[in-house]
Amino acid sequence: MPPPRPAASARALAAGWRGDGVDCQDVDECAEGTASCDQICINEPGSFTCQCREGFQLVRARAGSPPACSDRAPRCGRAPVLSLPAHHQG
Fold it and tell me: Residue 62 is part of which domain span?
């Protein structure tokens, strides 16, 4: 029996990864259904990105809320158009 890996259990993994701290695998948030994407989810190493279908834009209703796809023009000023990773929160 091989000796245990030193301090493997003491290493914290970054969000979006699973494993023992030495051998790590990317979590596919899109396939597992844990991503908060409204229309299109693209898995990336350690994270995921949300995108919208043509004719929609990615907007965030308020700070801290998940992004959503909207086909409506913003009512007041310009809504932020997002094309950024929606990092795993878990």
Answer: 35-90
